[in-house]
Amino acid sequence: MTSPRPLAIRAIASVRPSLILRRPRRVCYYDAFWPNGWVQRNISPSALMYQRDPADYSVFEKQLHAACPEVGVGSWIDYFGSNLDAVIGDVPVEPPTGLGRRVDYEEPGVPRPDHSRRRRTQKLGVGAGSLIVGGALIILNGSTGFLAFVGFAFCVVGLALLSTSWRRPR
User: Fold this and answer.
1) Element (DSSP H or E) covering residue 38
2) Average pLDDT of span 30-37
3) How far apart are CA 95 and CA 163, in angstroms?
4) Is 47 helix (H, G, I), strand (E, B) or coil?
5) Domain count within the chain
6) Are 83 and 140 members of one domain?
7) pTM for the model
8) CB-neighbour burial class of residue 77 (10 A; exposed 0-12, middle 13-18, buried 19+)
9) Pick from 33, 129, 131, 144: most CB atoms within 10 A?
């Protein structure tokens, strides 16, 4: 009888540029170790291990990522979150294929510019502009008709942008 799920899963992490902004992103690939000694490459851990409550899977996933370095091969982790490297031993790693699963990773030592002031200014400008355009559409159309509804929508969007731009950064 074969087991419906693998004995252990390990994460293999690498850093590659993101598809759109070309910033460095951490990408994880996963290998599964089956009871007969077969190692299945590039698997989805949620498809193989997610058979109970979501809280159980989240604990397993956190343990899997905690056992994996920023770049490199992680330890074998079983369904209960235990480290099985001593039991399974060293299994060679083949180069991964496919895109993998993106995990947030900030490149150490690279400061990110602060654009909060510019964003706040843009929100103020767009919010005030849409509030003015919305008010003009409502006043010029006598508060009836389709253009008055569009003007009301502009006013709502303008008020939302203005209210979010007045928040203080935390």
Assistant:
1) none
2) 85
3) 50
4) helix
5) 2
6) no
7) 0.51
8) buried
9) 33
